[in-house]
Every structure is written in C-alpha cells, then in structure tokens.
C-alpha cells in the first residue's frame, strides 16, 4: 500500500509488514533483571516493576504507526 502523496509505503502498511516479517530477538528477562539491579541503589527495582507495571517491557518488538502512537499518547495524557 502506498501513500498517495509519496513513494514511501503508508505507515500502517509498513508497521504491519515489519510486524509480520521481522526476525526480532526476544527479551531476555533474566538479563534485563540483572541490568536493572547492577547498582546496589537499584536493589528490588525489577521486582517492583514486575508487580506494579507487569507489561512495561514487551517480550518482543512491536512496530506501530504514528497514528497508533498518537492515540496511546492521548490516553496517557488523559490520565
């Protein structure tokens, strides 16, 4: 799908294509936990995040359109 005013793929089509065909790596939760707690000042941070914001880190990469990003930003600002 092409945008009518450019030769670039429309953002929704590009995001969809990237999500379908991306050979993405998955998040290593153990490595993330270790990195978050490298400093003694950060002890317990990974557990805090796991309980208070369990969906903060996605297990895999997800590509979104500028429109989806704007919708999410509007929801965040409304709260």
From TrEMBL:
It comes from the Bacteria. This is Uncharacterized protein. It comes from Chitinibacter mangrovi.
């Amino acid at each position: 799908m092409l945008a009518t005013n450019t030769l670039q793929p429309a953002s929704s089509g590009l995001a969809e294509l990237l999500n379908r065909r991306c050979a993405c790596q998955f998040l290593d939760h153990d490595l993330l936990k270790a990195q978050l707690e490298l400093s003694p000042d950060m002890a317990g941070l990974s557990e805090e995040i796991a309980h208070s914001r369990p969906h903060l880190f996605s297990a895999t990469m997800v590509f979104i359109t500028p429109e989806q990003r704007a919708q999410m930003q509007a929801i965040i600002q409304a709260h």
